[in-house]
Amino acid sequence: MPVSTTPSPLHAESLQDDPRIIEAKRLIAAAVSDHAAKIDSVSPPQAERGEHYQSIIADYTRDRGAPPIWPYFSSGMGNGPYVELADGSVKLDFIGGIGVHGCGHSHPDMVAASVDAALEDTVMQGNLQQNVPSVQMLSRLTTLACESGAALAHAILSTSGAMANENALKLAFHHAQPASRVIAFDNAFAGRSIAMAAVTDRPAYRDGIPTAINVDYLPFLDPHDPAGSTKRATDTLKKLLARNPKQYAAFWAEPIAGEGGYYPGSHDFFAALCRPLRAAGIPIIFDEIQSFSRTSRPFAFQHYGLDEFADIVTIGKITQVCATLYRKEFHPTAPIISQTFTGSTAAIRAGLKTLDLLESSGCFGDEGGNARRHQYFAAAMEKLAQKHEGLIGGPYGEGMMMVFTPGDGSLEQAKMLMGLLFDVGLLGFLCGAAPTRIRFLPPPTITTNAHIDTAIELLDQGLTQMKAKLS
Ligand SMILES: Cc1ncc(COP(=O)(O)O)c(C=O)c1O
């Protein structure tokens, strides 16, 4: 008997091909699309829902022990950059949970990914129970990361950015043992675990937390003094390397300062630091948890031409599932990394779809969507700054990491404007300290200039109200 080369279909494949499933998916997609289409502009809360919404906020405050950061409780639906809240209001969501809604709200591909995930028997994948999309995600990420010469051959998935960074530091410490210190930048933010609280340059975020790692800080690139700040950073690095020889296990850096205020890096600034770090054999970690997908290339280290220096890279947020990518030589020789959960099946499938959409929607390239939308935003902000003198300051960030300094740069004024914007229907969030800034992370795959125009109109309204309050 000849041996057949075609395997019989898996039951999971037969399920996908079942006409009932195909029809059910078609109906779900059509229903979501019909209802989402009605969410197409900003609108105020419904008065009749006010009491119920207040009770949601009160329940949260009681159970969480503190009020929500802002009164955002979503209905679970939206359309593009618009999101419907449970009070019936519709907001232009230009923050997206800090960069998580990369395809906007209720995107058909995201809904389809979640439906497909729901048909799989595994809710959360992990080291002992991986479905095939996990493998696809690892392969997509390493391929993207190596696109222009980086040697990031391997990857590990995880469920949070903090854990991706923990895994990154573990790999670096393991590789560089017994070195134990880390170099980071002033105003760094690495996450909320005990180790990441040590790396993060916000004393309040580690109040009462024992110091897990000794970290030394370098000044970041100053947009007003690139040459001077590069010199200050390289001089500080030189001093640290001389003071603590063989003690550094990692240089940990966000290529674009995120929580620190959305200040871009540059090739020259990073190369000036990475060369001596390389010469000293100190592993270089780029944290791209916030910057991934937002510049002219998938990774900001590629955007700045730093591929040769990338030893370990972390991503999260927009990819839904987080990951630590690393060069071959960092593969651990002891079982230092393992997790019950590496990511939910829905997150992995939605992450894969997001990567597809990022690549197919023209975000990348020197003249790609991210760069063009940034220019459009910056020009509109310059115009608005003329109208509202003294209330808008640059610089305006990089790519789809957009930002401005409101008013006098104080926390009070930034918070005031953020609240006013929330009420008029535009979602942006604080970052930085001295000055405190307001950032926007619009979805790279679907944001149009028309959406930016709407954001500018709402900002205009918010600033007019701010001016009235301040006078
Ligand atoms: C640069 C950077 N690293 C790490 C983290 C931590 O990620 P997560 O909140 O998913 O733990 C964040 C989150 O804002 C971040 O912006």
UniProtKB/TrEMBL annotation:
Keywords: Aminotransferase, Pyridoxal phosphate, Transferase. SUPFAM superfamilies: PLP-dependent transferases. InterPro entries: Aminotrans_3, Class-III_PLP-dep_AT, PyrdxlP-dep_Trfase, PyrdxlP-dep_Trfase_major, PyrdxlP-dep_Trfase_small. It comes from the Bacteria. Signal peptide: none annotated. Its EC number is 2.6.1.-. Its cofactor is pyridoxal 5'-phosphate. GO terms for molecular function: identical protein binding; pyridoxal phosphate binding; transaminase activity. It is an enzyme of class 2 (transferase). Belongs to the class-III pyridoxal-phosphate-dependent aminotransferase family. This is Acetylornithine/acetyl-lysine aminotransferase. It comes from Allorhodopirellula heiligendammensis. The gene is argD.
